[in-house]
Design a protein that fits this description.
The protein is mainly α. 79% of the residues lie in helices and 0% in strands. Belongs to the TVP38/TMEM64 family.
């Protein structure tokens, strides 16, 4: 799909295109298998870097915060207590309670981190809701801004091999760093 086709699709729907640009990242917070990176790149190429990044950022922050608040309300249910019993979840909750919001901030800066899982685990911790919102706003801004910058002009990826190699290298580094942090925080050899 070329940039012109994406732009035509959004132009065809008029202001509904902006609603879709917000809703797709919003929904991704609830359904983590959806590709946030694709939504950001489409937004940036359809609406420009600033508007596209702003739409994706506001959608993902709103969705993530709603997931956090929803699971925070369910903390004492049987299902959530079962999740809390998992060793990896206990380990992350304990780490968050000891270290504060910095681990969450770092994890959420990476586009490959399962943000729905982090939202749920954060809702089980003792972190204050307003502190979590600040972390979401800052970390998602960095993540969405980076992805938006990398995918800003998708046509140059095909005409400039240097830019393509640079983007692949950055994505590989971010993916590796995110997976390393995820393994450190989320996995336990006892599970």
């Amino acid at each position: 799909m070329t940039e012109e086709q994406v732009q035509h699709w959004f132009d065809m729907f008029g202001s509904l295109g902006y609603i879709a640009g917000f809703l797709l990242p919003f929904i991704e917070a609830f359904i983590p298998i959806l590709p946030i990176i694709v939504f950001v790149i489409v937004n940036v190429n359809a609406f420009g870097w600033f508007n596209g990044t702003l739409l994706a950022w506001s959608g993902t922050v709103a969705g993530s915060y709603i997931v956090f608040l929803f699971f925070r309300r369910l903390t004492h249910t049987k299902y959530m207590k079962k999740i809390q019993e998992r060793r990896s979840v206990q380990r992350l909750i304990h780490y968050i309670d000891r270290r504060g919001v910095i681990p969450i901030f770092i994890l959420m800066c990476f586009p490959f981190t399962p943000s729905a899982l982090v939202n749920i685990v954060a809702s089980l911790s003792h972190i204050k809701a307003h502190a979590y919102l600040i972390v979401l706003i800052a970390s998602k801004f960095i993540m969405i801004g980076l992805v938006g910058w990398l995918g800003n002009d998708i046509t140059t990826l095909f005409t400039s091999p240097t830019r393509l190699i640079m983007i692949i290298a950055i994505i590989a580094i971010v993916w590796f760093a995110g997976r390393t942090l995820e393994k450190h925080f989320m996995h336990s050899s006892e599970e």
